């Protein structure tokens, strides 16, 4: 790895050239209203995982178009009364896996709602939620699934799931407040859910977030997942502008402008997967209280345990 993006002094003031679609707010309001209109009450079933200090609950809630989405709800067994809930989103290619994969937040005294990722779970951690609505030609992966129209785009569905996960967490009888968090794709979903959920979210923690300044990202890195986009438009050059117009609707830069909660974001200067300029593009748009953790010698590992430790302390201070 090596430094390859803009120098740090330019990153600190960098702004994306991506234009926000004129109907951005209307598009997302209509999408979320439709999902809510089809929602049914979440189903919570306690499971025995052998984790004796924790309550572990299998959750099914209504996501995009009312479709069922799986999650884990993990909370300390000895905790009485209200608890803050951390809604956690997963990185690209992974699913919700096992409850014992997610012990950080419950160990810190939080309830942790871990959202499964529709259609994913075949690359590095298993998942349980299908994606029934694939559409059109695509490059292998998820970045170009349905990319020729924002209405059919995969990330429209996944971001809707993320907002509905926040709403499911808020409805828990013990929830005192809700935070959102994730790394990479999970970090991009945290920015999106934070921007679309308004005051329902009390804190946003996004590690090296994916899906930010996408028009730039797909031109400056050869790493997947962004390289999926380049492969798709290389074979479909007449469809490039339609695809670019679609990804504008899910760009973290636009969601970041709408975040009202305190936010913690990390960036890594040697990150070839989510280039630092794309992360700064989103971070620089967050209007309120915010903090950037910068890892100058890291790639997409993005601080690893160092960032996890900072994330817990950030949440504790809210």
Automatic annotation (TrEMBL):
Region (Disordered): 122-141
Domain Acetyl xylan esterase: 1-316
Residues given in the record as substrate binding sites: 92
Domain of life according to the entry: Bacteria
Coiled coil spans: none
Name used for this protein in its record: Acetylxylan esterase
A molecular function GO annotation: carboxylic ester hydrolase activity
Source lineage: Bacteria, Bacillati, Actinomycetota, Actinomycetes, Micromonosporales
Active site residues per record: 184, 271, 300
Residue spans of biased composition, Low complexity class: 127-141
GO annotation (BP), single: polysaccharide metabolic process
Pfam families: AXE1
Native source species: Dactylosporangium sucinum
């Amino acid at each position: 790895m090596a430094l390859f993006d803009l120098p740090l002094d330019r990153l600190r003031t960098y702004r994306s050239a991506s234009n926000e679609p004129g109907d951005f707010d209307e598009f997302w309001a209509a999408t979320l209203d439709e999902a809510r209109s089809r929602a049914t009450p979440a189903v919570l079933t306690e499971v025995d995982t052998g984790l004796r200090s924790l309550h572990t609950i299998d959750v099914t809630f209504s996501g995009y178009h009312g479709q069922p989405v799986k999650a884990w709800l993990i909370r300390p067994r000895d905790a009485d009364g209200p608890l803050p809930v951390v809604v956690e989103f997963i990185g690209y290619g992974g699913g919700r896996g096992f409850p014992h994969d997610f012990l950080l937040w419950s160990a810190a005294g939080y309830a942790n709602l871990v959202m499964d990722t529709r259609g994913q779970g075949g690359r590095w951690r298993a998942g349980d939620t299908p994606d029934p609505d694939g559409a059109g030609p695509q490059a292998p992966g998820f970045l170009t699934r349905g990319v020729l129209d924002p209405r059919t785009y995969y990330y429209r569905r996944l971001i809707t799931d993320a907002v509905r996960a926040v709403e499911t967490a808020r409805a828990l009888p013990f929830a005192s407040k809700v935070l959102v968090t994730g790394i990479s794709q999970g970090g991009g979903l945290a920015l999106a859910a934070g921007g679309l959920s308004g005051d329902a979210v009390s804190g946003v923690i996004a590690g090296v977030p994916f899906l930010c300044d996408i028009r730039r990202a797909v031109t400056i890195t050869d790493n997947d997942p962004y390289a999926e986009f380049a492969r798709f438009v290389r074979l479909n050059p007449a469809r490039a502008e339609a695809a670019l117009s679609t990804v504008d609707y899910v760009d973290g830069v636009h969601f970041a402008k709408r975040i009202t909660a305190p936010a913690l974001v990390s960036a890594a200067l040697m990150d070839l997967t989510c280039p630092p300029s794309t992360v700064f593009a989103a971070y620089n748009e967050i209007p309120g209280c915010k903090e950037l953790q910068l890892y100058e010698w890291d790639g997409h590992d993005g601080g690893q345990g160092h960032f996890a430790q900072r994330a817990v302390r950030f949440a504790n201070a809210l």
